[in-house]
C-alpha cells in the first residue's frame, strides 16, 4: 500500500528535521566562552591553541581590528591660523557628535508623533491567497489499471481589505498629544545641547588660557630664581657669600624648573580638554588665541525674582521637563480610554479562481467575486485588572514627572543664585589677588636689591620669590575663575545661545 509508506516517510522526515534543529541550537554555545575563567577566542584561534597546548597565564586580549582604530584630524583646520573662541565654537557645533545624536533624537521624536497621526487613517492592504491540494484514495475495485483516484483542487484569491478604527473615546488624541510633547522636549533639548557645547568650549578655552598663563608665570619664576642664583654666585665669588646660600639658590632654581615642567604638563591636559569639549580628534593640531585680554565686569548684583523667572522660561532643561510632565498627563487620558469601547470599520473586496480536477475527468473551473463592509465595536469586559494597573501606572508616572519638573525648576533657580554669588566672589578674589601681586612684586624687587647690596639674606630673597609666584598664580587663577563664573552665569540664565554670546560673558 502506498499510503502507509508515504505517512512513514513524512514522520521520519519530521524527526530528522527536528533533530537537526536541536543540534543547531546546542552548537550555538560554541561561540561563547567555555567557562568563566577561560578567555574567549575565535574558533580558528581556539582550535590552534588547543592543538598547540596552553602554557602560562590566560591571555584575555582580543583580536585587533584596524577599522575601529582610524583617528583622522578634523577636516578644515588650518595649522597656521590662530583660532579665537567664536571660531572654536563654530567648529564644535559642526563636529561634535553630541549635536548629531541630539538631532537624530529630535527626528525620532518627530517621527513618533507622525506615526501616531497615521493611526487616524484607515489601513488598506492587498492580499493574495493561492494554493493547491491533492488527495489520493484507493478504489475498492480496480477499474482496468486504475486502482486509486487522485483529486486536485487549486485556486487563487486576490483581496483588498480595509481596517479603520473610527472612534476610540480620545485615546489616539491623547497618545498624539503625548508624542507632540515628547517631540517638543526633544527639540528644546537639541538647542540645549548646542548651548551646553558653547558653554563647555568657552569654559575649557578659559581654562586652557589659565594653563598657558601658569606656564608663563612658572617661566618668569625660573628667571627670577636664576637672578637670585646669580647674585648668590657673585657674593661667593667676592668672598662675602657662603656655599649654603648658593645651595639654597640652586635649590630654588631646581624647584622652579620642576614647577615649570608641571605647568607644561597641565597645559597639555587643558589643551586636550578643549579638544574634547569641541568633540574633535585628539590628534588635531590647532593654534588657539590668548584669553587674557578680556575685560572683567566691575560688579554683579544679586539676581532679581523677575530675572530668575525670565531665565526659567527659556531654560531648555526646564522646558523639556515641563513637556515631559504634560506628556505623562496625556498618558493618563490614554489609559482611561482603555475602559471605553472602540468602534471600527472593516471592508473587503475579493475575487477567486478555483479549478477542480480528478483522475480521468475534465477540469472544472469557477470564478467568483465578493465584497463586504462590517461595522463593529469591541470592549474588553474582564482582563484580570490589567487596565486598572495600567491606569495607576500612568498616574504614578505623571506624579513622578510633576515632581521631577518641580525639582528641575527649583534646581535651575538655585543654580542662578549660586552662579551669581560665585561670580561676585571670583571678582573680589581677583581684585585682592591683583593687590597682592603688586605688593609681592615690590617685596621681591626690594629683597633682591638688598641681597645684591649685601644687606639682605638669601632666605628673605627666596621667600619673596616664592611669594611673588604664589601671588601671580592666584591672580591668574582668580581671573580665569571670574571668566568661567561669568560664562556659567550666562549659561544658567539661558543666554549662552550663540558664538557671539560667549564674547559677552565678561560683561554680565
Automatic annotation (TrEMBL):
Residues 29-59 are annotated as: Disordered. It is a peripheral membrane protein. It is found in: Cell outer membrane. Residues 1-22 form the signal peptide. One of its GO terms (cellular component) is cell outer membrane. Keywords: Cell outer membrane, Cytolysis, Hemolysis, Membrane, Signal, Transport. InterPro entries: CyaE (IPR028351), MdtP/NodT-like (IPR010131), OMP_efflux (IPR003423). GO terms for biological process: killing of cells of another organism. GO terms for molecular function: efflux transmembrane transporter activity. PANTHER family: OUTER MEMBRANE CATION EFFLUX PROTEIN (PTHR30203), PROTEIN CYAE (PTHR30203:SF29). Belongs to the outer membrane factor (OMF) (TC 1.B.17) family. CyaE is necessary for transport of calmodulin-sensitive adenylate cyclase-hemolysin (cyclolysin). This is Protein CyaE. It comes from Kaistia hirudinis. The lineage of its organism: Bacteria, Pseudomonadati, Pseudomonadota, Alphaproteobacteria, Hyphomicrobiales.
Amino acid at each position: 500500500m502506498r499510503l502507509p509508506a508515504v505517512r512513514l516517510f513524512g514522520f521520519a522526515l519530521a524527526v530528522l528535521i527536528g533533530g537537526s534543529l536541536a543540534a543547531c541550537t546546542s552548537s550555538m554555545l560554541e561561540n561563547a566562552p567555555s567557562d568563566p575563567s577561560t578567555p574567549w577566542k575565535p574558533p580558528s584561534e581556539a582550535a590552534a591553541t588547543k592543538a598547540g597546548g596552553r602554557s602560562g597565564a590566560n591571555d584575555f586580549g582580543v583580536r585587533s581590528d584596524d577599522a575601529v582604530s582610524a583617528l583622522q584630524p578634523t577636516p578644515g583646520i588650518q595649522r597656521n591660523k590662530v583660532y579665537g573662541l567664536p571660531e572654536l565654537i563654530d567648529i564644535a557645533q559642526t563636529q561634535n557628535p553630541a549635536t548629531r545624536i541630539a538631532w537624530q533624537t529630535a527626528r525620532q521624536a518627530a517621527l513618533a508623533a507622525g506615526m501616531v497621526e497615521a493611526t487616524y487613517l484607515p489601513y488598506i492592504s492587498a492580499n493574495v491567497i493561492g494554493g493547491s491540494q491533492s488527495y489520493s484514495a484507493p478504489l475498492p475495485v480496480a477499474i482496468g489499471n486504475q486502482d486509486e483516484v487522485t483529486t486536485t483542487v487549486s485556486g487563487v484569491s486576490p483581496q483588498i481589505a480595509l481596517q479603520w478604527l473610527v472612534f476610540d473615546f480620545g485615546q489616539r488624541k491623547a497618545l498624539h498629544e503625548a508624542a507632540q510633547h515628547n517631540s517638543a522636549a526633544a527639540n528644546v533639548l537639541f538647542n540645549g545641547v548646542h548651548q551646553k557645547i558653547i558653554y563647555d568650549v568657552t569654559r575649557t578655552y578659559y581654562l586652557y588660557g589659565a594653563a598657558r598663563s601658569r606656564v608663563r608665570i612658572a617661566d618668569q619664576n625660573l628667571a627670577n630664581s636664576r637672578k637670585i642664583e646669580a647674585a648668590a654666585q657673585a657674593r661667593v665669588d667676592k668672598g662675602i657669600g657662603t656655599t649654603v646660600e648658593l645651595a639654597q639658590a640652586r635649590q630654588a632654581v631646581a624647584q622652579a624648573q620642576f614647577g615649570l615642567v608641571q605647568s607644561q604638563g597641565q597645559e597639555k591636559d587643558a589643551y586636550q580638554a578643549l579638544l574634547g569639549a569641541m568633540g574633535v580628534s585628539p590628534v588635531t593640531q590647532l593654534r588657539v588665541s590668548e584669553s587674557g585680554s578680556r575685560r572683567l565686569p566691575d560688579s554683579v548684583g544679586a539676581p532679581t525674582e523677575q530675572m530668575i523667572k525670565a531665565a526659567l522660561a527659556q531654560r531648555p532643561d526646564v522646558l523639556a521637563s515641563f513637556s515631559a510632565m504634560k506628556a505623562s498627563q496625556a498618558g493618563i487620558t490614554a489609559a482611561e480610554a482603555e475602559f471605553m469601547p472602540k468602534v471600527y470599520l472593516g471592508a473587503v473586496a475579493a475575487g477567486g479562481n478555483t479549478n477542480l480536477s480528478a483522475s480521468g475527468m475534465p477540469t472544472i473551473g469557477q470564478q467568483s467575486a465578493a465584497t463586504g463592509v462590517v461595522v463593529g465595536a469591541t470592549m474588553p469586559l474582564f482582563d484580570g485588572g490589567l487596565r486598572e494597573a495600567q491606569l495607576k501606572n500612568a498616574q504614578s508616572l505623571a506624579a513622578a514627572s510633576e515632581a521631577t519638573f518641580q525639582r528641575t525648576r527649583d534646581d535651575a533657580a538655585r543654580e542662578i543664585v549660586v552662579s551669581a554669588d560665585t561670580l561676585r566672589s571670583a571678582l573680589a578674589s581677583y581684585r585682592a589677588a591683583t593687590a597682592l601681586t603688586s605688593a609681592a612684586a615690590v617685596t621681591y624687587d626690594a629683597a633682591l636689591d638688598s641681597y645684591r647690596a649685601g644687606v639682605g639674606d638669601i632666605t628673605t630673597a627666596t621667600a619673596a620669590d616664592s611669594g611673588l609666584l604664589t601671588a601671580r598664580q592666584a591672580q591668574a587663577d582668580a581671573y580665569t575663575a571670574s571668566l568661567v563664573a561669568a560664562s556659567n552665569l550666562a549659561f544658567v540664565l539661558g543666554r549662552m545661545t550663540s558664538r557671539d554670546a560667549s564674547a559677552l560673558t565678561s560683561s554680565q
